[in-house]
Amino acid sequence: MISMAIKATIFKANLQIADMDRHYYQDHALTLARHPSETDERLMVRLLAFAVYAHEYLEFGQGMTMEEEADLWQKDLTGAIELWIDVGTPDEKLIRKACGRARQVIVVCYGGRTADIWYAQNSSQFARQKNLAVINLPPESTRALAALAQRNMQLQCTVQDGQLWLGDGKVSVLVERTVLKEFSETDK
Length: 188
Fold this sequence. Notes:
The protein is of the alpha/beta class. The protein has one domain (9-187): Restriction endonuclease-like alpha-beta roll domain (Restriction endonuclease-like alpha-beta roll fold), CATH 3.10.640.10. Helices cover 24% and strands 39% of the residues. The strands form 2 sheets. The chain has a 6-stranded mixed beta sheet with strand order 3-4-5-6-7-11. A 5-stranded mixed beta sheet has the order 2-1-8-9-10. Helix 1 (40-52) packs across helix 4 (139-146).
């Protein structure tokens, strides 16, 4: 019996970012591979994380299928990992390992009560990681983001005074971010 692997679905996004808080104004032509087990909601949270932390060297990793890789990461010219971003509710051991490998680690969690329980169960371990920040997104926002998912997307992201908007020209979603854990003062 021959089993055929289900292939990833490719999404293309032209993303215009106007981040007035960071003075980052850039257009990005992105290609995202959605793993067969990944939802539109998770895909769009990954895209949102790219928009929020956009940088010339930020790129998508294979965190969904490879534990050694982040969902997004930024490396310097030597290959050292400056920023590791995971989406969802990753295993605490994987986060600890990422904190040992990267200068800064950010987890963008979502899922309402599931994310709240995950954070409550792991917060004491997370407190030990000085280079870790955890951001939580409300389920209303992430579900609205999922509705924007299309194979070819034209998106605009605006960040001003801490407010974050992602839209496609017809629908604009306000995403309220809750910081559950910040980097320690010495690691900012």
